[in-house]
Amino acid sequence: MRLIAGLALSLAVALPAHAQTRSFTLAGKAAPGATSVAPDHAHADGVGYEPGSTRLFSVAAAPGNYRVTVTLGLPKQATETTIKAESRRLMLDAVRVPAGHSITRSFIVDVRNAALLPPPLNAPGGSAVLLKPRERSSFSWDDKLTLEILGDHPGVTAISIAPVQVPTVFLLGDSTVTDQGAEPAASWGQMLPAFFKPDIAIANHAESGETLKSFIAELRFAKVLESVKPGDWAVIQFGHNDQKANWPQTYAAAETTYRAYLRTWIAEFRRRGVTPVLVTSPDRRMWNGTKITSTLADYVAAVKAVGAEQQVAVIDLNAASIAFYEALGPQRAPLAFNDGGKDATHHDNYGAWVLARSVAKGIADAGLPLAAHLAPDLRAFDPARPPDPATFRLAPSIAHDTTRPDGS
């Protein structure tokens, strides 16, 4: 069995896409050509559940984009299934299936590892992204595709995974964008996939504590540039950490170096046939009465100025975030933030969802071709009229960690 699984993986690059589809049955009789995986089958031979969990299902996968198709529904019980991929990227949200029925749903998952093509002899560079300690055990940087199957009554009976060539949206940013690995923190980048059709991938390379400078120094920018292809998108949001003059190695002044770095990034993407999009950073929850006092105004102005100068679309998430917080008011706005509202910068699932929906609205409002990939059933949305936090529901992930994300 080990030899067969290893051979299948080694041939994956050479075989045509239809021959690379791998199918797994999680409940009921295995379909022809599918591998039956019992609930107690720990990950081995490239497939199975992560240690100590019957909700984290992993399949060995080389870097790339994969179409994942799941069959949902049980014969004798109504089901409600939420699926997150890799580090809590929301793919399917509370899909309900009546008892005795089954449906299929598809979504695209981006898989990556930290390896870089080694530079030529005597050339500067490195062979891997300089990961932080917390990232080394992350599902975002391994050679597996991991699905987290959630809900009080989930009903995944079958999964198929196939490599696919689709456009990719690369997210580059800080802790307000990254895939936060554990409850209760969450960021808008990991909610964004749920608002797109299964014809495009979201590759979230953002990381907590990052700046335009550190993203380059840690070879994260090199990883993205190595991964992009013509027709892809690069969505860029920095500012929270760039503005910190007390971080001298990475500080970038809003009037000068910050703008220069943005121009350089735009040029690097454009020369590769990639469309850049700039996003202003969501603000911190700092009140002056019932109004938010912006802590990022200079950086918001810089993003808008560079966008106008370079003819790059700008999504004003800063304005959307302020409208969102002020709509909730000083007493209720903490319900959108991490650590029970003690954290005034990072968000929880509710806050991250509203910001991600605001980004999707920004894509549509800007008339970007990317809007053609948005889910067709998105309802009208206004961040100044957000959903009631008391009625918002999203199945929580298994991992929980009270450590505050890097940055502030």
From TrEMBL:
UniProt keyword annotation of Hydrolase present: yes
Lineage: Bacteria, Pseudomonadati, Pseudomonadota, Alphaproteobacteria, Sphingomonadales
Organism per entry: Sphingomonas glacialis
Keyword Hydrolase set for record: yes
Gene3D superfamilies: Galactose-binding lectin, SGNH hydrolase
Domain SGNH hydrolase-type esterase: 171-334
Annotated Pfam families: Lipase_GDSL_2
Signal peptide region: 1-19
Family: Belongs to the 'GDSL' lipolytic enzyme family.
Protein's name according to its UniProt entry: Rhamnogalacturonan acetylesterase
Sorted UniProt keywords: Hydrolase, Signal
